[in-house]
Amino acid sequence: MKVFIGHILLFLLIGFSNPEARKGNESYKNGDYEAAKEWYYQALEKDPEDAEILFNLGNTLYELGEIEESIKVFMQAQSIAEGSDIQSRADYNIGTVLAKTEQWKPAVKHLRAALEQNFNDADAQYNYELALRKAQEQEEQEQQQQNDQNQEQEPPPNPSAYAMAVKEQADALVSQSRYSAAQKLMQEALEVDETVRYYESFMNRIGSVNEIDQKGGN
């Protein structure tokens, strides 16, 4: 099974008129991130409102492990960018950085925003679905911890054989990216078998992905 696509941070290789920015690009491509960082900061002294330089600086800060500052700079680039391209790329990068540090819930927010702006981005589609699942797993773990502390709350009912069979069918549909069909299958099964609610988090996940899928098809 594929894992989170976290090694792809989009980098704009453009012909800057700003010489410091060009040197920053060269240093970045050579893996000299400290030098790239210094060149980009010098470039911003001349062009403080250049979203592309800020975007490249955000990538550089990420490579240097300066996660918080990287996210901050991506957001700055996003706030002044005129086109949706940088805005969607910034959301993708922010989501990727957050996911790499296992901050799944905010990662979902930004990957979803990137996907809404560019639905044909296959990496964003995959990462959004995976981040969403991880966020829900995290939420389930937190809920389980709360349940352990509160014995008065009863556990969810165990799934029946029918519920488990339906879940397997839904998994097969999801593997084919047929989210709408999977969602419908689970909802119809829930109407006749209460134990299907055992898979509520799965149903919520495919419902959310299906919502994005339908938006992209419009």
Structural notes for this entry:
With 218 residues, this protein is mainly alpha-helical. The chain folds into 2 domains: 19-132, Tetratricopeptide repeat domain (Serine Threonine Protein Phosphatase 5, Tetratricopeptide repeat, Alpha Horseshoe); 156-217. Helix content is 72%, strand content 0%. The protein has 10 helices and no strands. Helix 9 runs antiparallel to helix 10. It is elongated and about 65 Å long. The two termini are 30 Å apart. The mean pLDDT is 84.
Structural category is mainly alpha
Number of domain units: 2
**Helix proportion of residues, in percent?**
over 70%
Shape: elongated
Using the CA coordinates, give the radius of gyration.
21 Å
How many helices in DSSP terms? 10
Strand content: under 5%
Low-confidence parts, pLDDT < 50 over ≥5 residues?
none
State the separation between the terminal residues, measured CA to CA: 30 Å
CATH level 1 name of the largest domain: Mainly Alpha
Reported by name, the CATH topology of the largest domain is: Serine Threonine Protein Phosphatase 5, Tetratricopeptide repeat
Give the name of the CATH superfamily of the largest domain. Tetratricopeptide repeat domain
What is the number of beta strands?
A: 0
Largest β sheet strand count, sense and barrel closure = none
CATH architecture of the largest domain: Alpha Horseshoe
* SSE string: HHHHHHHHHH
Q: Summarize model confidence as the mean pLDDT.
A: 84
